[in-house]
Design a protein that fits this description.
5-stranded mixed sheet; 4-stranded mixed sheet; 3 helices; 23% helix; binds copper (II) ion; electron transfer activity
């Protein structure tokens, strides 16, 4: 699975023309691989989110923009990779892939190929994230919370909590 992850990322992000080519016509896309199908569906979801009106169904108190406290999974990455919120904020992770992930805080070592070679979960957050579902965590203490997906060795992100 490691090679799939790498090819996937470089195919989609390596060329500035690639996304443009993919976006206009979904019928012409005809992905032949599972990764291609995932990419196509993730792109479609990303576009729908980006272009749609806010239609958030969350309870929310209206004090913050929904996007400001939401991390999506897309194309086997957390987006945004770094999210800054104020202490007391509840961050929502939304799985917009068709595959399962985890949100796991801890430290890790990344090899020269960009994939983690070791992981040390710290137990602060360790939540499975299923396709189409959300998980949330409320950050009460300021600090930098580095997290990763324990399933995909190239997926990580951080939440920076300010006072
Ligand atoms: Cu993952």
């Amino acid at each position: 699975m490691k090679t799939v992850n790498l090819q996937y990322r470089s195919n989609l992000f390596g060329s500035p023309h690639r996304m443009h080519d993919v976006i206009p016509s979904t019928t012409a896309l005809r992905p032949r691989t599972k990764a291609g199908i995932l990419a196509a569906s993730a792109l479609t979801l990303a576009l729908a989110t980006a272009c749609g009106t806010s239609g958030s169904s969350g309870a929310g108190n209206g004090a913050t923009l929904d996007n400001a406290t939401t991390v999506r999974t897309s194309l086997l990455s957390f987006m945004p990779a770094t999210l800054t919120v104020k202490a007391g904020s509840t961050v929502t992770w939304t799985d917009t892939d068709s595959i399962a992930h985890t949100v796991t805080t801890g430290t890790f070592v990344v090899g020269s190929d960009g994939l983690r070679t070791s992981e040390n979960p710290d137990g602060v957050i360790n939540m499975p994230l299923s396709p189409g579902k959300n998980v949330t965590f409320t950050f009460t203490k300021p600090g930098k919370y580095v997290y990763y997906c324990s399933i995909h060795k190239g997926m990580s992100g951080e939440i920076v909590v300010t006072p």
